[in-house]
Predict the structure of RNA polymerase subunit sigma-24.
Amino acid sequence: MNPVDVREAVTRAHRAEWARVVAALTRRFGDLDIAEEAAAEAFATAVERWPADGVPPNPGAWLTVTANRRAIDRIRRESKREDKQREAQMVHDDDPPEPLGAIDDERLRLIFTCCHPALAVQTRIALTLRMVGGLTVPEIARAYLVQPTAMEQRITRAKAKIKAARIPYRVPSAEDLPARVAGVLTVLYLVFNEGYLATGPGTDPVRGDLTAEAIRLTRLIHALLPDDGEVTGLLALMLLIEARRTARVAIDGELIPLGEQDRGSWDRAMIAEGHQLVRERLATGVAPGRYQILAAVNAVHTSARDVRDTDWSQVVALYDQLVRVDPSPIIAVNRAVAVAELDGPEVALAAVERHADALDGYHAYHATRADLLRRLGLGERARAAYDRAIELAGNSAEVAYLTRRRDQLGHA
């Protein structure tokens, strides 16, 4: 078989089957370390054997059986003088894995385990990307600008805490499920945002690998919980933002704001899917949550073929609804951007500056304020606001854009 075809088959299998294999092993052996190591060994074995033997008809089953055997080998090595009966029970089972439906349920349990509220948010992100997403430790470390050894230690400590605290490997009970789903969605949204507007120096301004991984994991949650409105809303939101990715950064590396993007380059298929998800939620008549409203805002933006066609009154109405659900200063600032299009920059500036104390360390607050001051002809105040936004912004494309806008003030 062509080596290139085999590599592609292994890559496809890794994307499709990693979480299933890890979840099946975690259920069986109750240990994330064993599950991760055995899954990695199974894929390494595939790289060695598939070129000669051919890609198996059911790669997922082959990988799960192989990983089970590797896990049993490890347990044998580590428990030579321990209870042989338990070992014999494990060794006995070389049967094929459970049907995919059951394994999908195990993947859901794995996600909830990795996103348990007993773990710090950054740790939940790292553990989810490793155990569910299948990213390597160096890949996760690069995404969050830490050394691979530090990221390895973070993941190791998280797995140790899960074991020591006996965090259950299960889907939460019905009464706990809404809060736990919210925690999972928070992790996935943070992963997506880091890819959408990468914050670290020396990184690409847009990390397509992270946005794609966040969307893939959210699709998994949506497939497992199709009736959860906020899961649907988050998936729609991600798709509608991701559809604009190729239009967001110019060739020279400068950020292109929404109003100046080439809308003909947006991914229309992705937008259509996002719109369909938004419509599905509207049809239920159930009051929307935060992600559903944000998805609706983005649906309005992506419905306009030209920025001049944007229905700003609808955008403001949606933000009014969002403020009632999430009365945060950041939402208020985002609302002010739309208000400026309806009522003018002076009204919007007053609304923004009410949150000066709470948002002084937030670069988007200063960037928004700078743009409003520029539109009002208040050059010196605008320059100071741009300086503060540039100081706080971590994204190279955004810094380039803000710097150009600030420098244009000198030519006014």
Notes: The longest helix spans residues 3-29. The radius of gyration is 24 Å.
